[in-house]
Write a structure and sequence with these properties.
Blueprint (H helix, E strand, L loop, with lengths): L3 H20 L3 H4 L11 H11 L8 H11 L3 H13 L6 H18 L5 H17 L5 H11 L9 H9 L6 H13 L3 H14 L5 H10 L4 H13 L4 E2 H11 L3 E6 L21 H15 L11 H14 L4 E4 H6 L7 H17 L4 E6 L7 H10 L1 E5 L5 H12 L4 E3 L5 H4 L4 H14 E6 L5 E3 L9 E3 L2 E7 L15 E7 L1
Parallel strand pairs: 1-10, 3-4, 3-6, 4-5, 6-7
Antiparallel strand pairs: 2-11, 7-8, 9-10, 10-11
Length: about 500
């Protein structure tokens, strides 16, 4: 356990919320980030804050000031304050020391300054102060110690604090992994690098972009190692953010021709004329996916929580008698794709038009709906019933599960018709099988765009939405959205980086 300041902080936020701390951003405290450290009169500032903010006291004032320094990335100001506390023989509590350690990391990782021996010794001194006091650290403090140690020659000691974080029940963050990866790259510790990267891949944690950029800068003359990391990005469907892709391009430019391109839905690059490979699953991959879903996911009681067991039995018997299908349609999802404030007459017409589009292609489809749809206009629903296999579930049942069960049971050539991304079901799979599921979904999922005058459907993108190497040319998708992994979306990335070795 850390000292009282940590306990107080939790109580304080519970009782007063963030608003009191926001109010504490007085002109006095803001002055800390503007004045040069040598001009700061800490006695005066501390007294003014305590007089003006009744919720601030000796237990939390140091942490409050250092938090302000941290948010402003002002290491020099923070050190000035620490020197003041030491000159007055005031106790520096663990919460303050922990924040100072993390601020060291924030400053030096951003500035890329090389630490002097005395600066490194100072960081190790502060880490030792906390480590010597506590047999086991809480997760937040352990994370700060890891970040501090990653700046020093003692960076491998950080691994023992990985265990402290795990003991608290918290997962290791991308920042914890990435700060150690950065030091391992600097020290050419390749075994550690790839052990960490593979561990992150298994947990679906994406490294910070600076890790990739550092690797490319260091190994720019080694094509094999460049390809090794690009393959990692590809294998794990990592979608790099636009804000960092220019830095990555700059790192590769000495040896690569870098072109920013838009690749359309047919998958051909306008810069190099290469066509990206298709998304089609192997039959063995589909069989493994279907087996895991049908035998491990669908037998779970909790996923069918809202569904009557007799209804499940009835549906399975229905599917066994009527498969295979060309497509399985989520009837309610399709009808509501044009808006949720329309009338049953409009909804029934939309559904009937979609079914007709399959009839026109001489395809067999299963429509999964809900029992209240029996009361939709008779003309349209009679057409749906006569021209498709129709199964209506209870109104509270989970129709996504019925759709997935029917499609996977039907076989590898069956498509699904829905806007739902099925994330709540795919997350139950292993990381590797989740990727296979997403590829199957991308290959087979169709979405209705409109059914006003005629049915217009968005067909699946025919190539995988990830980094690809085709005939020695790499293509990396990137995004300006907050998406780290391309399996989280089926939207075609608007921009790609085409990389050709010069």
């Amino acid at each position: 356990m850390l000292r009282k300041s940590f306990q107080f902080s939790a109580i304080y936020f519970r009782n007063y919320g963030r608003s009191a701390f926001i109010r504490a951003k007085s002109e006095t405290l803001e002055k800390v980030l503007i004045d040069k450290p040598k001009n700061i009169k800490w006695d005066t500032i501390r007294n003014e804050i305590r007089l003006n903010e009744k919720t601030v006291n000796e237990l939390n004032i140091d942490s409050l000031i250092l938090s302000k320094c941290f948010n402003g990335a002002q290491l020099d100001v923070a050190l000035s304050y620490i020197n003041f506390l030491q000159s007055k023989s005031l106790t520096i509590n663990d919460a303050s020391v922990s924040k100072l350690i993390r601020l060291y990391y924030k400053h030096y990782s951003a500035s890329r300054e090389e630490l002097t021996k005395s600066q490194e010794e100072e960081i190790l001194k502060w880490c030792k102060i906390i480590i010597d006091k506590h047999e086991v650290l809480d997760a937040s403090t352990a994370e700060n110690i890891v970040h501090g140690l990653s700046l020093t020659h003692r960076w491998k000691d950080a691994f023992k604090f990985f265990e402290h974080i795990k003991m608290s029940g918290k997962e290791l963050t991308d920042s914890v992994y990435s700060c150690i990866l950065s030091k391992a790259i600097e020290d050419d510790s390749n075994t550690i690098i790839w052990n960490l990267l593979n561990e992150m891949a298994a947990k679906q944690v994406v490294p910070r972009s600076f890790v990739f950029i550092q690797w490319f800068n260091k190994h720019i003359n080694d094509e094999e190692k460049i390809d090794q990391m690009l393959k990692y990005i590809s294998d794990n469907h990592i979608l790099l953010p636009e804000i960092d892709i220019q830095n990555l391009s700059d790192a590769l430019k000495p040896k690569y021709t870098c072109s920013f391109v838009a690749i359309n839905r047919n998958g051909r690059c306008p810069s190099c004329s290469q066509k990206l490979p298709g998304v089609k699953l192997l039959e063995t991959e589909f069989n493994k996916l279907a087996t895991q879903f049908l035998e491990e996911i669908f037998i779970r009681n909790d996923v069918w929580l809202k569904t009557n067991p007799s209804e499940i039995k009835r549906f399975k018997e229905f599917v066994d008698k009527t498969i295979p299908y060309d497509s399985v349609i989520d009837g309610l999802n399709v009808a509501y794709s044009q808006g949720d404030k329309l009338t049953p007459k409009v909804y029934s017409k939309i559904l009937a038009q979609v079914v007709k589009s399959f009839v026109d292609k001489n395809e067999k489809c299963l429509v999964i709906g809900r029992k209240h749809m029996k009361f939709w206009p008779k003309k349209e629903m009679s057409y749906v019933r006569e021209n498709s296999m129709l199964f209506l579930t209870e109104d509270l049942s989970n129709d996504d599960l019925f759709l997935l069960y029917a499609a996977l049971k039907s076989g590898p050539n069956t498509n699904i018709f829905s806007r739902d991304l099925m994330r709540q079901h795919s997350h139950l799979l292993s990381p590797k099988m989740k990727t296979v599921f997403r590829r199957w979904q991308q290959e087979h999922q169709y979405q209705l765009i409109t059914a006003q005058k005629k049915v217009i459907v968005r067909e699946p993108i025919t190539f995988e939405l990830r980094a690809h190497r085709v005939n020695s040319v790499w293509h990396l998708p990137f995004t300006n959205e907050n998406i780290k992994n391309t399996v989280d979306t089926f939207n075609l990335p608007s921009c790609w980086l085409c990389l050709k070795r010069t």
